[in-house]
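Lab notebook, bench 4. The sequencing result for the construct came back, and we need a structural model before the next group meeting so we can plan mutations. Quick request posted to the team channel:

Model the 3D structure of this chain.
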Amino acid sequence: MKILFDATVLELPFTGIAKTSLMLYRECLAQRPEATITGLHRKPLAGIAPPGICMMRCGRFFSSSRWRLSTLPRQVARQGATVVHFPWNGCVPEGLHGCTIATTIHDILPLEMPGSFKNDQDELRYRRDKQQDIARSQILFTDSAYSKRQLMAQFTLNSEPVVNYFGPTLDSTGDALETKSASEPPYFLYLGGYDRRKGIVELLKVFLELHRLQKLRCRLLLAGKAHYFSDELKLLIDEGTQTGAVRELGYVPDPELAILLRNALALVYPSRFEGFGLPPLEAMHVGCPVITTACTSIPEVCGDAALYVDPCDSRGFGEALVVVQDDEALRCSLREKGRRQAVKFSWEKTAATFLREIDGYRKLKGTP
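Done. Here's the predicted structure in token form:
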């Protein structure tokens, strides 16, 4: 089997889709050592691919659209690919022949979130592009049963989408994770970047109010690339940092992130829109309690292992933060439940599903 994939996502910092894509391909090679997996890209990569995965830079002088329309199909034909995978929500070009096209559409959240489009024309363009990607794909993967239902409700499909959950990407081995000293102040950790849909504004409002009332004695650490999408967010963060209640960490490398999660009172993840929700899985995997919402796909990931809150119910949200801070037995219970829940997700399962679907389709079509 010769798999080529659209590696342009790896031109960006290796977070989210980039990391999970590489974990998938690495495990595919572990299960199929005879396979070759090659990523095609236009710009320099932002990181290093795992051993065994070939990276080919081509068409570097072309524009992004020209590269996708001409260079990528030409390389697919030249390399004799049996499978071409588009891991980054589509962008499938015309002109791919003699191969199986597999596409991962992680979510279609813009169709659900208010204010995602500037006007009706933008929404129509989004729908047209996604429908085109779906029509050009023989196998369609998505990250959750929730995203599958949304795809089936919003688009015309060639076949039923295949739910293929992620596994965790962080190292959970005991030797890799340090324990903070007793003198270090306790903290909650927010992870996921500054995005309105993540509920960061609601979290800061509740946290700072309880901190003023001295009901919360811990700090709130914010991990992820800063993006001040509103004046309100910037004012809240400024207030928190000036009082010492909030600390911005920016991007945190994986080894440090695993340590931060392991030593946190809890991950607080009040997101309202998720196609999967990787941060709660990472937290459970390393033994960090999780406070999150029951919105969209998140309960599929967390099961009964998280403390669920409504980010719009400030009183209930605040009570959850206080009880997790004060109740060590509850934190221990959430840690143990989280570890058991995280075991249900693995890259072995993810790669096995990916390869099984490809094998099944190719056998059905009688292709070697």
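The CA atoms of residues 90 and 335 lie 36 Å apart.
Will bring this to the meeting.
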